Amino acid sequence: MVVSDNKGELISSKISSCFSQVVGQYHRLIVVSVQSTTRINFRQVAESTNSRYINLNLELSRLLLELTQKQRSLKAEGLLKQIIGNTDNQVIFLEHLEILFDASLQLDPLRCLQKLARDRTIVAVWSGDIENNHLIYASTGHPEYKSYPIDGFLVVKLEQPEANFSQ
Q1: What does the angle CA 82 – CA 153 – CA 72 come to, to the nearest 5 degrees?
Q2: Integer Cα distance of 18 and 23 in angstroms
Q3: What does the alpha-carbon distance between residue 15 and residue 146 come to, in Å, rounded to a whole number?
Q4: What's the per-residue H, E or C state across the chain?
Q5: pTM for the structure as a whole
Q6: Cα–chain-centroid distance for residue 98?
Q7: Quick count: other Cβ atoms within 10 Å of Cβ 118?
Q8: Strand 154-158 with 2-4, pairing
């Protein structure tokens, strides 16, 4: 299901209203689709909803730093669980997901997010687009290109930056 952005509604209110919609779902995943030109301070949005904010690129790269390439691909998914598991928050915002698309880690980014969203609500900030009811990351032909049908998770599409949360 895709929820489109309504101009004038605060982003934190829009996203927090989705929390109750995913409570009974198998995967409590909310994907926030934003264009690369949209600037929103998701750390502030997370704080305003009493949620935890994680910069996934930063946290996962720190843990992968001292591992060999082979160890990275073998341990990356477990390290994601470790990062998420270090909190009591029931809602976690994950931003800067680009590391999940690194081909050398051999991860399926959406499947990883869905697994993380089994025990708590995950709000994943997806830098991509929605086309033909598919969540898109990167351009066709790009090594990190992914296209996923929107099924079994909630998508919130944000197109306009909001004044209260702009950087």
Answers
A1: 30
A2: 9
A3: 24
A4: CEEECCCCCCHHHHHHHHHHHHCCCCCCEEEEEECCCCCCCHHHHHHHCCCEEEEHHHHHHHHHCCCCHHHHHHHHHHHHHHHHHCCCCCEEEEECCHHHHCHHHCCCHHHHHHHHCCCCEEEEEEECEEECCEEEECCCCCCCCEEEECCCCEEEEECCCCHHHCC
A5: 0.85
A6: 10
A7: 12
A8: parallel
The per-residue pLDDT for range 66-102, each reduced to its tens digit, is 999 999 999 999 999 999 987 778 899 999 999 999 9
Q: Average pLDDT of 125-148? A: 91
Nearest to 51 by CA among 98, 100, 15: 15
